[in-house]
Automatic annotation (TrEMBL):
InterPro entries: Amidase_Cbmase, Bact_exopeptidase_dim_dom, Peptidase_M20, Peptidase_M20_dimer
Cofactor(s) this protein cannot do without: Zn(2+)
Protein name stated in the entry: N-carbamoyl-L-amino-acid hydrolase
Taxon lineage: Bacteria, Pseudomonadati, Pseudomonadota, Alphaproteobacteria, Hyphomicrobiales
Cofactor mode of binding and number, as noted: Binds 2 Zn(2+) ions per subunit.
Keywords per UniProt: Hydrolase, Metal-binding, Zinc
Domain Peptidase M20 dimerisation: 212-312
GO molecular function term, any single one: metal ion binding
Pfam families, sorted: M20_dimer (PF07687), Peptidase_M20 (PF01546)
Family: Belongs to the peptidase M20 family.
């Protein structure tokens, strides 16, 4: 038996074809979670999987699995993939690359008539992006037991449609796709993804060996003051929510200006009543804080909450924690395999930390997990111009195939490798 090889042309052709589902007029895609466009994308990848003999299944969380059954189906499967939903102005590679690279690697095994010892499941997680239904990573968080079905299914989009309703329309569109219970034991999880930053590009590396994902905390802070006439209310009697917000924002930015690794953002602020001649009664704002060091992340988080209480002035303040995800490290054994594979194929590789969140963060506490990054042009992502070179796409899938052969136990004649 020869060693299986991926088909770079087939993988590239499929990436381009998937880009038609939700295609934007000027390039890129709008294929948000559980949308009609994502149903089209499901149809496409399920058909491609069927050609290779993979069985499609879906769980109550709306995750999609395409499984190549192993010799010993009772053993925990190896799972590889990513997501196929996108931002409203997304590119062709974020998520899609990981799921289609996994599909390509498994297809390469299946089309040679090889049967792995363990089953291999290609996954497309539900709502990674979180743009239509916030927050993202719903499918992998449900799979990992980090959220309850109730709290996820009742989340509504801007049109008032709930996750539960949208998911029902997806499931109804696929009556023949097998239903499976939520969650199962996984032998190893591997997620290929574009880097979404430019470290690989600037160093000339092709394969990123992801050491971990930096931790993230988010808050919604609400400052409550009192509306009053901007011309008559004495300054010393005002409960001006914008004044308090400005003080908090300034202090927080100053307090976070400690090292190059901390990333602190106030990305949204809503003022009420937002009228030019009314003393503002309320400001609700969001904070996104990230740092690779968990102790520092916790310390900065505490500082933010202290500043929020201390700088409210004459206003009231409420602090609500939304996301509290520590940094995680990926499995050293899988990372060594990625490096070894890259070296065998002559792909320059680089160890790097993922600054962005991925579904692999949820999988890492459950099972040995890893991520394989490939470069994307100028580090640009979440943008219609997002681009990865065909050779890099092929390289990522080639390395993934090596890991799947090893992890799922595929026998072939090493002499032909
Ligand atoms: Zn992604």
């Amino acid at each position: 038996m020869m060693k299986p090889r991926i088909s770079p042309d087939r993988l590239w052709g499929r990436l381009m074809a998937l880009g038609k589902d939700g295609a934007l007029p000027g390039g890129g895609v709008d294929r948000q979670a559980l949308s009609a466009e994502e149903i089209l994308a499901w149809r496409r990848v399920i058909a491609w999987g069927a050609e290779a003999g993979l069985t499609a299944s879906t769980d109550p969380a709306g995750n999609l699995f395409l499984t190549l059954e192993g010799k010993f189906p009772h053993l925990a499967p190896v799972v590889a993939g990513s997501h196929i939903d996108s931002q409203p102005t997304g590119g062709l590679f974020d998520g899609a690359f990981g799921t289609l690279a996994a599909l390509e690697a498994v297809t390469a095994i299946a089309e040679m008539g090889l049967t792995p010892e363990r089953s291999i499941a290609v996954v497309a997680w539900m709502n990674e992006e979180g743009s239509r239904f916030a927050p993202g990573m719903m499918g992998s968080e449900l799979f990992a037991g980090l959220r309850t079905m109730d709290e996820v299914m009742t989340v509504r989009d801007a049109d008032g449609i709930s996750v539960g309703e949208a998911l029902k329309s997806v499931h109804d569109a696929f009556p023949d796709v097998k239903r499976r219970p939520l969650g199962f034991a996984v032998h190893a999880y591997i997620e290929p993804h574009i880097e979404q930053a430019d470290l690989l590009e600037t160093t000339g590396a092709v394969i990123g060996v992801v050491t971990g994902i930096q931790g993230k905390k988010t808050w919604e802070i609400t400052i409550s003051g009192r509306e009053a006439h901007a011309g008559t209310e004495p300054m010393d009697r005002r409960q001006d929510a914008v004044k308090a917000f400005a003080a908090m924002a300034t202090k927080m930015h100053a307090a976070m200006d400690v090292d190059d690794l901390v990333k602190f953002t106030i990305g949204r602020a809503e003022v009420q009543p937002n009228a030019p001649s009314v003393v503002p009664a309320k400001v609700a704002f969001r904070i996104d804080l990230r740092h690779p060091d968990n102790d520092l992340l916790d310390a900065f988080g505490t500082r933010i909450e202290e500043i929020a209480s201390a700088e409210a002035g004459s206003c009231g303040v409420s602090v609500r924690r939304l996301v509290d995800a520590p940094s995680n490290g990926f499995d050293e054994g899988l990372r060594s395999q990625i490096r070894a594979s890259a070296e065998r194929h002559g792909f320059a590789h680089l160890d790097l930390l993922s600054a962005a969140g991925h579904d692999a963060r949820q999988m890492a506490p459950l099972t040995r997990s890893a991520m394989i990054f490939i470069p994307c042009r100028d580090g640009l992502s979440h943008h219609p111009d997002e681009w990865a070179e065909p050779a890099h796409v092929a390289a990522g899938a080639t390395v993934l195939l090596d890991l799947l052969l090893q992890e799922a136990g595929v026998s072939f004649n090493q002499g032909d490798a």
